[in-house]
Amino acid sequence: MAHDMTLQNLFSVKGKVALVTGGSRGIGEMIAAGLLANGAKVYISSRKAQQCDEAAQRLMQNYGGECISIPANVADIDGIDALVAEISKREKYVDILINNAGVSWGAPIDEFPEVGWDKVMDTNVKGVFFLTQRLLPLLTARSTTDDPSRVVNIGSIDGIGTPSFETYSYGPSKAAVHALTKTLALKLRSRNIIVNAIAPGPFPTWMLSTGVGTGGDVEGTDWNAVGGLNPSKRVGTPEDIAGLAIYLCSRAGAFTVGEVITCDGGSLLGR
Question: Domain 7-270: which CATH class?
Answer without folding.
Answer: alpha beta
